[in-house]
Fold:
Amino acid sequence: VAKHAGEPTLVIGQFLDQLEGMAARLDAPADILASLAKAIPYLLGAYLLAKILELLVAGDFDLLFDGTREMLDAKWTYWAGPRFASSLPIKWRIVEDPVDKGTALMTFDPAAPKGRYGAADIVTKKAYRDFRLHVEFCVMNEGGNSGVYLMNTYELQILDSYDNKTYFDGQAGAIYKQTPPQVNATLAPGKWNVYDIIWTAPRFQEDGSLKSPAYITAIHNGVLILNHFQLKGDTPFHRPPQYNKHADKLPIRLQDHGNPVKFRNIWIREIKDAEGKQTKAPFLRDNKGVETPIK
Structure:
C-alpha cells in the first residue's frame, strides 16, 4: 500500500479536475459545482477502503516503474522492432514530476524525432498474458501522443484529447482504429491521467487460426471507457486489423511518438484462473448437522 501512497491525492485532484472540466464544457452554474464537490469525502472514503483492501488481498502485483532509474533499467528495455534506431542504455529521461513531488519517466528519445514509429519504444523484460495493468501518464503539450501496447501488439491510445479534434477512433482511450472510448475522460495537458486496464489475451489454434479474440475493459480517471470490448485484431495505422498467431505471453510496450509524455506508478497483476479441488462428495446437511450423501 505504501508504494501507492500518492494515489489518493491523485484521485482527489482528478475528481476536482473532472468537475472543473464538466462545469466549463456544460457552462454549469457555480452552485452545481459546489454541490458536487461536497460529495468528495464520501466518494473518497469508499474509494480508499476498496483500494486498500484490493492491494492487501492482491499482493501479487508487480511494480514496473517507481520513478527510479534503477527500476527502469531492471524491468524495461528497447523494443527492437523493424524501425528501431536507438541503443541501450534507455535514453528516456527520469525527470521531476510536473504536478506532485517525486520523479517520472519521460519520452522524447532523440532517435524518435517527429514520431518515427518504433524508433525508441520501450518494453517490459517480462512477458504477460492476462492481466490488470495500472498506468499513470501526463501529456505535456497540446496534441501530445503516445500509446500503451498490450502484448506489444494491441494499442490503447494516449493522446491529448481534452480540446483537440482528431478522428474518433484515434483519441485517448481508443483501441486504435477500432473503437472510440465510451466517454472522453481526458484531462488537460500537464495533468496526470490514469488507465486501469483489464486484459484477456487472444487464444490461437495449433494451425494459427483464432480460437478466441482478445478482450479489454478500461477505466480512464475512474470512468469506464471500454467494457469488455472484443478486439478485431492488431492495431496498425496502415491497414485493417487482423489476428496473427503470436506467443501466449508478450511484453507491455510504451510508445515514444516524439512528444514529451511522462509516466509514473506503473504496476501489473497477472490474472490467473482460480484453482479448486473437490475434497468431498456432494451431500446435504440437516439442522442437526447430519450429512446425507447425494447420489
User: Anything to note?
Assistant: The longest helix spans residues 7-26. The radius of gyration is 22 Å.
